[in-house]
Amino acid sequence: MAFPSEPIPNFLRPRVERWVGLVILFAPSFTLGMLTPSHPFSIPFYCIQAISFWALWRSHSLHSLKFELCLYLNQFVLSALWTASIFFWQQPLLSLIALLLQTVATLLCTLVFWRRERISGQWMALSLAWQSYLCFLFLYNP
Length: 142
Prior knowledge:
Elements: H1 15-35, H2 39-57, H3 66-88, H4 92-116, H5 118-140
């Protein structure tokens, strides 16, 4: 089966498939957000990341989004590592390294997503702004 490399118009992807894709992306993001003690702030952060990739996925095939999917999964795993290291393991050095790597990965995602779909890059830029704020708090909090 050949996958088209050009964008798929939104109306060609069935509505059910679009909503199922959104639920599949939201499930791990919502779960990871609920695991953090500060979940009122974490849930929107992780859901914004899911919306960002969903906005990209709804108009492109997954076959053409291999690199973008790898970047997204990479920053999601780094986000899970940061969450575990700061809230559960209480390892400040590991959490700082994970947060800095996650910020770099989110910056790369923002740039690559923006190149493909502007709205997707804008959603990821919101996530990047939140991560930059977390880095600032982590580095300058006594």
